[in-house]
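in:
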């Protein structure tokens, strides 16, 4: 029975699966984006995210621990260099999985897995480069709402003052239009009544 077994073995032995994930990790670190099956991409995400977190602290111990997983000096240099610098502020979620459809031949569901900070289309680098200071999101409430509500208060007061004036003007227009319509309807009724009396 496989109760509580959350590891997707991918139809491989433990050694084969470990080698596969290590090779996929090396390719992802070197190329920043790879295409593979969805099941392998999800397994790779669980495998590589702790490795990237470990690479954020550039110590000899961290390098040796990561090297025990990857066994590639070039990948270690890239990981502790450019990748660690790019993900330094990110508190997790270093990779993104994008489904790309089904593979011809066996109809396996394919996916693109990429490092989040190396895709400028999705990462929002253009917004950060526009001169805005980067603010870290927190789960606390109250601080941001009070600051954003303060500049809106004078505008709300101006709208509150202008609203009755605009409402009065609109009401006058509606009243004059309604009076004209009522007068026209009354004249039509009188004309119909006089026409019916003349016919008799």
């Amino acid at each position: 029975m496989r109760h509580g077994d959350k590891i997707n073995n991918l139809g491989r032995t433990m050694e084969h699966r470990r080698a596969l994930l290590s090779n996929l990790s090396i390719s992802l670190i070197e190329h920043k984006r790879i295409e593979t099956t969805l099941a392998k991409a999800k397994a790779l995400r669980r495998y590589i995210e702790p490795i990237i977190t470990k690479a954020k602290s550039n110590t000899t111990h961290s390098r040796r621990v990561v090297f025990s997983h990857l066994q590639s000096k070039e990948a270690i240099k890239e990981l502790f260099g450019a990748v660690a610098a790019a993900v330094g502020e990110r508190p997790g979620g270093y990779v993104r999985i994008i489904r790309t459809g089904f593979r011809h031949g066996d109809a396996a569901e394919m996916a693109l897995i990429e490092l989040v900070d190396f895709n400028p289309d999705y990462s929002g680098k253009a917004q950060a480069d526009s001169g805005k200071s980067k603010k870290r999101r927190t789960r606390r409430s109250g601080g941001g709402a009070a600051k954003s509500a303060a500049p809106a208060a004078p505008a709300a007061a101006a709208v509150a003052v202008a609203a009755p004036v605009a409402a009065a003007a609109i009401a006058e227009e509606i009243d004059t239009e309604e009076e004209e319509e009522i007068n026209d309807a009354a004249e039509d009724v009188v004309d119909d009544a006089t026409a019916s009396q003349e016919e008799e």
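note: The radius of gyration is 34 Å.
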